[in-house]
Amino acid sequence: MLPAMTALTLGLRYFAGVFAIAFALGTVRTVWVEPVLGKLAAVAIEGPIILTVSWWWGSRLLARQPLGLAGRAVMGGSAFVWLMLAELGLGQALGQAPQAWAASLVTPAGLLGLAGQLGFAALPLMIKAERP
User: Fold this and answer.
1) How far, in Å, are 5, 29, 98, 118 from residue 78 at the CA level?
2) Within 10 Å of residue 58's Cβ, how many Cβ atoms?
3) Cβ(98)–Cβ(46) under 8 Å?
């Protein structure tokens, strides 16, 4: 497989693996944690957990298929694009207008969540590219 295709494929796999866990944790955050602690605190608690999962999953993927720095940038960048598209699509499926979704990103909780999402995108750049 061409290096760019490998990086894009790993980006999709990275997104899918982390999104599955994040979706489950997001449900817990929304249903049980937010009503007790508030949205900002709930996002602050969830973020490190998701970033830990991201590091673990990204490390597993890159151990099996090492990429150079450019490939890891493509992996993280494409995963971020998939994540934003998934969040937008999920919001629309739940009746949220695209403008409302975009506006939610500039709230305190939204900015903290976006910082975590950018961290998710950057993690492949920080993971060692060699086999264990």
Assistant:
1) 11, 26, 20, 12
2) 25
3) no
For the entire predicted model, the pTM comes to 0.93
In angstroms, rounded to a whole number, what is the distance separating the alpha carbons of residues 81 and 64?
23
Question: Which residue, chain included where needed, has tokens 């061409």?
Answer: 2
- Asked whether 120 and 80 are in contact (CB, 8 A), the reply is yes
- What is the chain's pLDDT, residue by residue, as a tens digit (132 residues)? 677 899 999 999 999 999 999 999 999 999 999 999 999 999 999 999 999 999 999 999 999 999 999 999 999 999 999 999 999 999 999 999 999 999 999 999 999 999 999 999 999 999 986 544
**Domain extents in the chain:** 3-125
Taking the C-alpha atoms of residue 109 and residue 1, their distance in angstroms, rounded to an integer, is 40
Q: Is 7 helix (H, G, I), strand (E, B) or coil?
A: helix
How does DSSP classify residue 38?
-
Residue found by looking up tokens 């920080």 in the block: 126
